[in-house]
Amino acid sequence: MHLQSFIAGRWLGAEPAAALRSAVDGRVVAHTHAEAIDFAEAVDFARVAGLRGLLALDFQQRAQRLKALAKYLLEHKETLYAASAPTGATRQDAWIDIEGGIGTLFAYASLGSGELPSGNVLHEGPAMPLGKGGGFAGTHILVPRRGLAVHINAFNFPVWGLLEKFAPSFLAGMPCIGKPATATSFLTEALVRLIDASGLLPAGSLQLVIGGTGDLLDRLDGCDVVTFTGSADTAAKLRVHPNLIRQSVPFNAEADSLNCAVLADDVTPDDEEFELFVREVAREMTVKAGQKCTAIRRALVPRRHLDAVAERLRARLARVVVGDPAQEGVKMGPLASHAQQADVAERVARLREHAELVCGGGTDVIPLGAGTDHGAFFAPTLLLSRDPWRDAAVHDVEAFGPVSTLMPFDSMDEAVELAARGRGSLVASLVTHSPRVAAQVVPAMAALHGRVHVLDRVSAKESTGHGSPLPALKHGGPGRAGGGEELGGIRAVKHLLQRTAVQGSPTMLAAITGEHVRGAEVIETEVHPFRRHFEDLQVGESLLTHRRTVTEADIVAFGGISGDFFYMHFDEVAARQTQFGQRIAHGYFVLSAAAGLFVSPAPGPVLANYGLDTLRFVKPVGIGDTIRARLTCKRKIDRNRVDPSGVGQGVVAWDVEVSNQHGELVASYDILTLVAKRG
């Protein structure tokens, strides 16, 4: 198989170059291509065709494309599983990579449709008054950068690695050039061929580089971004690329790190958490043959339990069947390449200069399956450093394979300090049954770890584990881990947008953001806004209601219905002694009364109210006060959905201001409704 790059909308490469071998049996499975890539053409295609196609869609439409792509890839996932076989991944390993990547597309499609607006301007409000008269205000907007994203990935996750970067980039309107690690690029190429065949993406949304990046980084400018996943050494070199520095190109690194797991000193060998710790360390050593940037490299245990942990880990690792993942019963496959096998062997040798060997140790494992004697296998290897205070290598040398080192501590303060000697990592696990220990240790560890996974018998029933980054949570870490951030829900999209402060009159800000800003001109008509279908409703359309005077009977009736007999509403003597000096109405009565003022009760386009945002009770409402409400269409989001009857619908957020007889604001909130379309 001759691999090809996907550049400027066409597949490039016919002449074979470097041979890529199966990690399982050493046979040649593919060749890279010898043809040089014209990176000027690739960059130009992304900036012209790619941006044009992506920005012709809005946030919501791009989210819908992501969802459709995820469904398409899920339907064709067996193609990717077949292509994954030469990487040495077991079915479970490949599931993490393939279906984990597809799941990330689904997650970002959902986040996009739920949290991003129609259009390509994301208002990061609220707007702030900047003058006393109300005519000058400021806010922030997030807009597409109008540049491209270069994503350079490691060999261990050929599918997930590309998709977890592509999904937020696509939502942010950034065309991508993906550069997978060469060793497993045949799987990434299979993925991009499926994406191309789907026809779901605008031209130029995604390009693929097989082989080196040539002068690609020299062609970027300040509108572009570069993300990198891989070794800390390579990240350090890329970070100081002259053009990236000169052009102030944002650079995000997620680097391999010496992640740790800590068994807290409240846990004994008889506790469930003890076995959970052993199981977690063993799993992280053997899943993907330990080739995960989040794998546990250092296992920290109380000194009194050191031998017990070592024995249980040795027994568990001895049951791991190593070999060709196609063979029944195999639990761990080979490393991704023979070069990786040699690298791990060299690093284990360095670690063994100061550490004892508990089990494993090298390439002398006898794997199951025909031809595996030519594979890149490495035995699950557990080391023991009895004096980690003097053993610098254990905190500095990472063997990127099925390798972990045990080390003892004498107090939880020592455990925190030992964890910190890794100089920053992506994730640390704390296994404890004590909330007190968790409250003490986690804030201290958080300073040098991008994620802290607290494991106990309760969370274990649902935990996704130490080594599993999740789309909704930040992935990245300080120091050695690269200092970057990926994922984290909608944060990942915002990282790829340009944040800009905007100043002007409220009316101008409303026009720019596509959202009503208080103080802006409103649109008042004889038609109640609740009587308009989604397409007909204008942002800024507003209703000022009639008035209602609050009586003692209102408070008594609301208390009887709600069961809320709080003294501020019913005890005249106690209420007089407070800062309010009188009985006041329930806040939720004010909310309900306001709804009674602005709701149009007859059947109409407004289908349902499904929530309130930013609710604040600003001033008390007393007996005899008169309130009224202003209801204004704040923003519209067309999610391209239909209800079970086939009627289209969108989401409308309404700004509600409730004021008293003096014109003072007493309550403020956004109400969210589903509104039917005409069709």
UniProtKB/TrEMBL annotation:
Keyword Manganese assigned: no
Residues of the Aldehyde dehydrogenase domain: 24-464
Gene3D superfamilies: Aldehyde Dehydrogenase, Chain A, domain 1 (3.40.605.10), Aldehyde Dehydrogenase, Chain A, domain 2 (3.40.309.10), Hotdog Thioesterase (3.10.129.10)
Record keywords: Oxidoreductase
Keyword Oxidoreductase: yes
Record-level Gene Ontology MF annotations: oxidoreductase activity, acting on the aldehyde or oxo group of donors, NAD or NADP as acceptor
Compositional bias segments (type: Gly residues): 476-485
Ranges where the record places region Disordered: 459-485
MaoC-like domain boundaries: 539-641
Pfam families to which the protein is assigned, alphabetical: Aldedh, MaoC_dehydratas
Stored NCBIfam families: PaaN-DH, PRK11903.1
Protein name: Aldehyde dehydrogenase/enoyl-CoA hydratase
Organism ancestry: Bacteria, Pseudomonadati, Pseudomonadota, Betaproteobacteria, Burkholderiales
